[in-house]
Amino acid sequence: MNKITPFLWFNDNAEAAAAFYLSVFPNSRKLHELRCNEAGPYPIGTLLTIDLELDGQQVTLMNGGPGHPPTEAFSFTVRCDTQSEIDSFWSILTADGGSEIACGWLKDKFGLCWQIVPANIQQLIAPPAAMRAMMTMKKLDIAALEQADLQPA
């Protein structure tokens, strides 16, 4: 286990979110789950927490009840090697109620925010024209960012 891992609060759909994220990211697996084993605020067998490894990143999801929905102040960054990879993650994560935000950011159907970016994003947007081009995009377009730097000012 990593020493530091994200711990995400879900109302009552952490199990569905875990199944979704495991299907989205290659090389991912469930590490451990904790279920309610005695009468209490949740029925016996209800998932309390689940530890995942999403393509190398460990994360814990918890069914914590209402009151603390995900916020755009926290997001995961997915660094992609190709436009095809960006397109694929974008399509999957915005499906079924997800939404586009801006500049490579999106919100999935569970309300969690993601940044789907080229692996070399820092280099790509270093030129001012490329940064300006990115500011007009929702899903990032690698070719357009590269082309923006070639245009006369």
Number of helices: 5
Helix content: 25-40%
Name the overall outline. elongated
> What is the radius of gyration?
18 Å
Describe the strand arrangement of the main beta sheet, using strand numbers. 1-4-3-2
* Mean pLDDT reading: 94
Instruction: Tell me the structural class.
Output: alpha/beta
Low-confidence stretches: none
Q: Report the biggest beta sheet as strand number plus sense, adding barrel if it closes.
A: 4 strands, mixed
Please give a structural write-up.
27% of the residues lie in helices and 28% in strands. The chain is built from 5 helices and 8 strands, in the order E-H-E-E-E-E-H-E-E-E-H-H-H. A 4-stranded mixed β-sheet has the order 1-4-3-2, covered by helices on one side.
Structure at a glance:
This protein is an alpha/beta fold and 153 residues long.
What attributes characterize this protein structure?
single chain, 153 residues, alpha/beta, 4-stranded mixed beta sheet, 5 helices, elongated
What's the SSE blueprint?
Blueprint: E1 7-10, H1 14-24, E2 29-35, E3 47-54, E4 57-63, E5 75-80, H2 83-94, E6 99-100, E7 105-107, E8 113-118, H3 121-124, H4 128-135, H5 142-148
Parallel strand pairs: 1-4, 5-8
Antiparallel strand pairs: 2-3, 3-4, 6-7, 7-8
